[in-house]
Design goal:
24-stranded mixed sheet; Leucine-rich repeat, LRR (right-handed beta-alpha superhelix)
Length: about 575
């Protein structure tokens, strides 16, 4: 689709602008004149054929009446970043074909009666970043073709009735970043075609003036002071698709609070003070796909059992005070859920079938809780789970069969726990795992077969544990491992054959350990594809001349901050790419 300027290029033929203005401004072959950044304090004369006029970033403080009266062909006018303090009904007289007007970043404080009444064909008007504190009753009269109106970042404190009643074709209205505390009944009357309304970052305490906007699709009320939602607050908004109520002061969700929002797809209630949610609060939201209730004070989850949100795909309950998941919490009506976030709650345990019913769940986040006990069947039924995040808990033991049903799991994060050891069958069912993070635990020893079954795993992180010794065949079964991170342990000894079977490994990180000597057998286990070896910050004093000979594809070797005093000339004779 052609934008407005491209359209003009094809359909309007114009002579070049006069020599005087073109000596100062940029004049294009088509009827466009750019006079931005030229230090003008008044409106310069331009040819009557001009269709696009840029006057942004100048020092214009006053526009005389009928200053543009000869520019009947003007379609695009930019007056951004000037010092204009006032406009009047005659300011834009004669601009009968104007479609785009931007007064962004000026010093206008009042929109007077019939301020834009001559701009009957205007479709876009920006008044962003001014000092507007008052809109006269007829300021927008006769603007029946206006579609986009932006009045954000001004000083409005209220919206009186009927101010926008003539804007019958308005689709987007932005009133965000003002100081609005009150929206009068009838404030938005006449806006029957409005699709998007932005009221973010105001001081609104009550909301009950939206019923006339029957075509509204997006309503943003983030960062206000709303304390309560009534059953009638959003009445008649049957086409609303997205509602944002984050960062308010809502304490409870009453029954049928959103009953008219039958097409709602996204609902954000994060960062409020919600403690109580009625069992029927979300019962009519049959098309809801995303629900954000993070950063509240929710303790109970019984309302989920009768929610009726059959199409819900994403739900966040992070940073609440939920300390227990009762059996059956998710068993009714949430079988379409794909992402569930329960990070930063007070969960201490996961009982059997905690997530039963979530047969299509793909991502489960349980990080930053206090989970110390997990039942063997805690994840029973999650046959489609792909991502499991259990980082930053207090897990000391992982049951041998706890992951047995998670055959589609690709990412498992168990970092920042207190895990000491694992049974050989813990990960045996995870044949599709792509990333396993066991960093920041207290693992001391890796036994052979610990990772059996992980035949497709490319990334394994065991950094920041307490490993002191690596035994032979410790990583057997990891045929497709590409990156192995063992940094920040206490590894002092590596038995011959430690890395047996790692035929596809490309990066081996042994940074910050206690290795003293690099022996001929240390890397002789078929690491022919290894490209990066990090031995930075160890206690290495001696390197065997043939220690790196098996590493024929090595490209990067870091031996910085060790205690090496001598290296034989033949040490790197095979490693021609290092």
């Amino acid at each position: 689709m052609l934008n407005l300027k491209d359209f003009l290029f094809y359909v309007i033929l114009v002579p070049v602008a006069s020599e005087d203005v073109c000596d100062i401004c940029v004049c294009h072959i088509r009827p466009e004149i750019d006079c931005s950044y030229k230090g003008f304090t008044s409106i310069p004369d331009v040819p009557i054929n001009t269709t696009s006029f840029g006057l942004e970033h100048n020092n214009i403080s006053w526009i005389p009446a009928m200053a543009f009266s000869t520019l009947e062909n003007l379609v695009w006018l930019e007056l951004d970043y000037n010092k204009i303090t006032e406009i009047s009904p005659t300011t834009f007289y004669g601009l009968t074909n104007l479609k785009y007007l931007s007064l962004h970043n000026n010093k206008i404080s009042l929109l007077p009666e019939r301020a834009f009444s001559t701009l009957e064909n205007l479709t876009y008007l920006s008044l962003v970043i001014n000092d507007i504190s008052e809109i006269s009753p007829t300021a927008f009269s006769s603007m029946k073709n206006l579609e986009d109106l932006y009045i954000s970042k001004n000083r409005l404190t209220e919206i009186a009735p009927g101010r926008f009643s003539d804007l019958v074709n308005l689709k987007n209205l932005d009133l965000s970043n003002n100081k609005i505390t009150h929206i009068a009944t009838g404030a938005f009357s006449g806006l029957k075609n409005l699709e998007k309304l932005y009221l973010t970052r105001n001081k609104i305490m009550q909301t009950s003036s939206f019923s006339d906007m029957v075509r509204l699709k997006k309503l943003f009320l983030t960062n206000n002071k709303i304390t309560q939602i009534e059953q009638t607050t959003f009445a008649n908004l049957k086409r609303l698709r997205e509602l944002r109520l984050s960062k308010n002061k809502i304490t409870k969700i009453v029954p049928q609070a959103f009953s008219d929002l039958v097409k709602l797809e996204k609902l954000s209630l994060s960062d409020n003070n919600i403690v109580e949610i009625a069992t029927t609060a979300f019962s009519n939201l049959k098309n809801l796909e995303s629900l954000d209730l993070s950063i509240n004070n929710i303790t109970k989850t019984e309302w989920l059992a009768s929610s009726g949100m059959k199409k819900l795909e994403k739900m966040s309950l992070s940073k609440n005070n939920i300390n227990k998941i009762a059996t059956g919490t998710f068993s009714v009506g949430l079988n379409n859920l794909k992402s569930l976030v329960l990070n930063d709650n007070g969960l201490t345990e996961l009982g059997s079938e905690s997530f039963s019913g979530l047969v299509n769940l793909k991502q489960l986040y349980l990080g930053n809780n206090k989970i110390s006990h997990i039942e063997s069947e805690a994840f029973s039924g999650l046959v489609n789970l792909e991502w499991l995040y259990l980082a930053a808990n207090e897990i000391t033991h992982v049951p041998s069969t706890v992951f047995s049903e998670l055959r589609n799991l690709t990412i498992l994060n168990l970092s920042r726990n207190k895990i000491k050891h694992k049974t050989p069958t813990t990960f045996s069912a995870l044949g599709n795992l792509r990333e396993l993070d066991l960093s920041y635990n207290v693992i001391r020893l890796i036994l052979p077969q610990t990772f059996s079954g992980l035949v497709t795993l490319p990334v394994l992180d065991l950094s920041f544990n307490k490993i002191t010794r690596l035994v032979s065949s410790a990583f057997s079964g990891l045929d497709n491992l590409e990156t192995l991170t063992l940094s920040s342990n206490m590894i002092k000894e590596m038995e011959p054959g430690t890395f047996t079977g790692l035929k596809n490994i490309k990066k081996l990180d042994l940074y910050n350990n206690s290795i003293i000597e690099i022996t001929p057998s240390m890397f002789s286990s078929g690491l022919t594809k290894l490209e990066i070896l990090d031995l930075y910050l160890n206690n290495i004093t001696k390197i065997s001349p043939t220690a790196f000979s098996p590493l024929v594809n090595l490209k990067s070797l870091n031996l910085f901050r060790n205690n090496i005093t001598e290296i034989a000339p033949s040490t790197f004779s095979v490693n021609v790419n290092v």
